[in-house]
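Here is a typical protein record:
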Amino acid sequence: MKQQLQPIDACRLDLFTVEEELREKYDMRIVARILRVREEYNWFLSNPDAKDRQFVETVMSRHGINKTQAYSDLAIIKALLPMMSQASRDFHRYRYNEMILETFQMAKKRKDTKTMEKAASSYAKYNRVDLEDEQAVPYDMIVVQPFTATDDPSVLGIKPLPRLQERIQQLLHKYSAENMDIEDVEYEEADLEFNNLFPEDKNGEPTEEDIL
């Protein structure tokens, strides 16, 4: 089943994915949008000083879209700008693979087996197809370390104090006897007599004497 994503999410995930894989993953409407944004991104790189208006006019002319669609594409590109530094590397990987495959196909038409072999070897080496896939970490087989709580400092190489517990009890008894007992009292509402402290005039406002 083809994935149903918003254009910006699809571009974020697959802006530089090869077209064949895009067709397998998305419906043609999304594929066309990704390919269009990819081409617009290349124009964006080639014209870093261009104004938004220039971008919109250019893509409207190149792709025959209306102004709303052009600004929508511009919004996607600007939203993806933080990832563009990494995306640029991904794009160059995509372009390299594309050129190698194109070279292979041209050599195949000419029956140039030597060039075909070089292109295939370069493709395999670049994409590291000769290496085994990384194995997932078997989290279910990771053994939890058997930590045990202790108050014995000797496990850290520290010599314990002699008769420590006895000394603790002595200090507790000494300082408990020196402190006065705490008396609990119940909470009482404060009676501040606001009417007497802040008398009001007939209009409910503080009197002049109260203010002064």
